[in-house]
Write a structure and sequence with these properties.
The structure holds 2 protein chains of 2 kinds. By secondary structure, chain A is an alpha/beta fold. In chain A, about 35% of the residues lie in helices and about 25% in strands. In chain A, strand 7, helix 5 and strand 8 form a beta-alpha-beta unit. In chain B, helix 7 runs antiparallel to helix 8. Chain B is mainly alpha-helical. Classes of the chains: A alpha/beta, B mainly alpha.
């Protein structure tokens, strides 16, 4: 049984300009421990879809199941990482930020800080456990955010362009680190990006989305062995394939 | 040497502005342009201050004023902090209380003194009531604004991790609006002092710094008035350095939510 099942999910909302369909009839399955990237131009509804899976938005039609259970709102079975560095709580140290979800879970203190520290070690930040977020670089803050989303041990990690605001070199480091973290934790990951190279580097499978209305148009399975070499011919061929799919969409629309 | 100079620099800067103001005053007082009874020299003010402290009257007056300020302020915070936060969080509560606050806010607290005297009589109850009235609105408005300024991403993240309304309140909304809450506290303290001195002039029977000033007028004792004013300034200075400044360094500055100025 797939870990995440998205069946014909749609979301429409009313704006002053009229009814807008954000997501229309999206359907796909994601296996346990699979790394799936959602790629598409801005406005294609990929973040909306992620927010539906996160439980922040309720679909107007369709069904969504995680681990066989229908999704009704937010839940501790999912961890989420956003693009904005400001997602960390500035009044909490890195360690206390990571421990937040454990506090919500009701895990008491010696145990709580031990788990939080382990998670920080996973993202190589154990030395900065007692630093406040404003003393950390953007890349470090995003690593804390990842550790925080993993700390309470959700089965699914949802990521909304977490590295989009980082410089290119830091982003490369972060992608390598994320693959390591994913391989160590074996979480099911849904990763939203508009960066094709990033999707090919990270994903087991890439879902290409098209806008107006937002839906999943096709999927590309990436069968390259890890660690992947972004300069290899096969890697670049995958990028070409994805770009071709995206430009086909653009043509179809114009 | 330079390390010491670095460490004492902020303090020396604080002193510089105070000393400069004192020097200008002393220059005016000694210029002979004004009668010494109206503009006593600093030495005379210091003597009045010293005598007042020695015979114990000035500290007693200061304490009773401070008591009224702190009681009124505590009462104001007890009312305004939860109410302001609820107003920022829930639209119906905002809709109910905002018109009331908007209408009451512009009324000077001292305009209530005669009525308060009728209702509560002369003395502490009236003074504390007036202080509370003056302090409640800055605290309310800042708490209300602060809650609305809390980054929605923090709420969303906390929500995703299963935080309920109570947890959100204590672990996200209160710390997240702390820069505003501190600003509100400072303003409330300031307004409380302005109100207490006025209230004491009009409503305190025989105690308090405001009463000293009012009473000294009858005997043309400008030095006593200035000594009482100096005590008020001194208490304000001490609170800023020891309470608000320290609170700010321990919280919002440490969290990077508010930065110290350059240099």
């Amino acid at each position: 049984m797939p870990h995440i099942e998205v069946c014909d999910v749609s979301l429409a909302y009313d704006t002053p300009a009229g009814r807008v369909v954000g997501v229309a009839g999206a359907s796909f399955d994601i296996e346990q421990s699979e790394f799936v990237c959602l790629v598409g131009p801005s406005g294609c509804g990929k973040s909306t879809l992620l927010n539906i899976i996160a439980g922040f938005l309720t679909p107007t039609a369709g069904a969504l199941r995680i681990g066989g259970r229908p999704v009704t709102g937010r839940g501790l079975d999912r961890g989420i990482v956003f693009q904005d560095f400001a997602q960390l709580f500035p009044w909490r140290t890195a360690l206390k930020n990571v421990a937040f979800g454990l506090e919500m879970k009701g895990i008491a203190n010696p145990e709580r800080e031990k788990i939080a520290l382990e998670q920080l070690r996973l993202v190589k930040l154990e030395k900065f456990a007692n630093a406040y977020p404003h003393h950390l670089s953007g890349g470090m803050q995003q690593r804390v955010a990842i550790a925080r989303a993993l700390a309470y041990d959700p089965s699914v990690l949802l990521m909304d362009e977490p590295f989009a605001a980082l410089d290119a070199l830091t982003r490369d480091d972060m992608q390598r680190l994320l693959v390591d973290v994913w391989q160590a934790s074996r979480k099911t990951v849904v990763y939203v990006t508009h960066n094709v190279a990033e999707a090919v580097y990270l994903g087991d499978r890439v879902l290409v989305m098209t806008p107006h209305p937002g839906t999943v148009k096709c999927e590309v399975k990436i069968t390259l062995a890890r660690p992947r070499d972004p300069l290899s011919v096969a890697f670049i061929d995958y990028q070409k394939e994805l770009l071709r799919q995206l430009s086909l969409n653009a043509e179809a629309r114009s | 040497m330079s390390a010491l100079a670095d460490r004492t620099r902020p303090f020396r800067r604080h002193l510089t502005s105070l000393l400069l103001a004192a020097a200008v005053y002393e220059g005016l007082a000694r210029s002979g342009a004004f009668a010494p009874a109206l503009l006593p020299t600093l030495a005379n003010v210091a003597r009045a201050l010293f005598e007042g402290v020695l015979d114990g009257t000035l500290p007693a007056h200061a304490l009773s004023t401070l008591y009224r300020v702190l009681m009124g302020l505590a009462l104001a915070i007890t009312i305004a902090l939860p109410l302001g936060i609820l107003m920022g969080r829930y639209r119906p509560i905002e809709g109910f209380f905002l018109p009331l606050a908007s209408a009451l806010m512009p009324i000077p607290s001292l305009a209530w003194v005669p009525l308060f005297i009728l209702w509560f009589g002369l003395g502490n109850a009236t003074a504390i009531g007036i202080v509370c009235y003056a302090a409640v609105f800055p605290m309310l408005v800042n708490a209300w604004s602060g809650v609305r300024a809390v980054n929605p991403l923090w709420l969303r993240v906390a929500n995703a991790m299963g935080a309920g309304e109570r947890t959100l309140f204590w672990k996200v909304i209160v710390p997240g609006s702390f820069p505003f809450l501190l600003a509100g506290l400072r303003q409330a303290f300031l307004r409380a002092w302005i109100a207490v001195v006025g209230a004491e002039m009009l409503a305190a029977s025989d105690w308090g710094l405001g009463w000293i000033i009012f009473d000294a007028k009858e005997f043309l004792k400008a030095d006593v008035m200035l000594a009482a004013l100096a005590v008020i300034g001194l208490i304000g200075f001490a609170f800023e350095r020891l309470v608000f400044g320290a609170l700010e360094r321990l919280t919002v500055e440490r969290w990077g939510m508010l930065r110290a100025g350059k240099g």
